[in-house]
User: Fold this.
Amino acid sequence: MIGFIGLSHLGLNYSLATAAKGFDVICYDPDKDLVGRLRDGIFPIEEPGFRELFLRHRARLRYTSDLPEIGKCSLVFYSLDVRTDDRNGSDLGPLTVLIEGTAPSLASGSVAVVMSQVRPGYVRKLSTRLKTQAASWYYQVETLVFGAAVQRAMEPERFIVGSPGPEAPLPEAYRAWLSAFRCPTLVMRYESAELAKIAINLFLVSSVSTTNMLAELCEAIGADWTEIAPALRLDKRIGPHAYLSPGLGISGGNLERDLVTVQGLAHEFGTEAGTVDAWQRNSAHSKSWALRVLQRELLGSKPAPRIAVWGLAYKQDTVSVKNSASLELIRTLTGCKFHAYDPAARVDGVMFPNLTVHPSAVDAVANADALAIMTPWKVFSTISPAAVAAILGGRLIVDPHGMLEHRACGAAGLRHFQLGRPK
Assistant:
């Protein structure tokens, strides 16, 4: 029996994947209302594939708020999402409370794996503090990506495991779980694994920042990023899977969290991390790209326009609006009236008095002076520019991700601005 403690996005995702691999799973959370909804297949998070996995493997899944139940498990994962605060720092308090409150109920000889993202040094200190408990402690790097969580859990590229002694074999129960996913497993000391997660995200940030910097330069000099990206993908030093899609900076909280963590570690240990400062400046500049286009192309002639916005989530296929470029735009242009649509994300209207949310993309666009497509939801690419032109009051389309076809927009009489295309 395998247990998951903490049923937020991370725990729900990996417990479903574990059941799909043929294991019997006990899913524990102290929130009785949440557990009751999960028993009925009602998930608090919209994630493609969740319900399908639940319906297919529900016989192997047991949801409970009865703490002694986790004593039946030989392997237990702590899988609570670690939230970030307004400064993108990690709040590890709820995770620590959850671990310390449940560790006494773990079975003798069981294996406990912290899957939540933590600061380097956390698990070693935890294992020392809880050394009187029966469980042996490990850390595993999670690979949760909103909107693609199920696919990445079912078909992982690799597992990274932090161990108290990397040279020692992993416990049998843990090895059996890892083997079921048929991917390479890298075992290293706790601190290396904890920092590996951050290292992966920082290399991703580097690609995001470099791509956004060069895409903006393309606009200025008459180059086209869509022509350049294929050349980079064919370079063996960069590769076909490199992140080369221009976007509106870094959002969502997780990448920002790792930047803030590295800054804190650099300050604590006297190392140099000026590159991180530059990435943060680059992200802030990229996030305001749509604002600069609107100021240049619309606000000078019409200072209080009606602006339609497609997308409120920080990226497609998620309900999260953490550090959303869309909401930052709405928050900044207080004199404008925004009419928005998002397929899944919801916002608190009290926080945005200049925002009206509509039930459809068409309703949001009607009679607007401009349309800003801020989140690359796939559904937006299925709407024809001609249909948009027929109901949009103005002619301006601000489309950083290129959801509408550029030439079709021109044919429909629309002024289409895409990040990375020449002005």
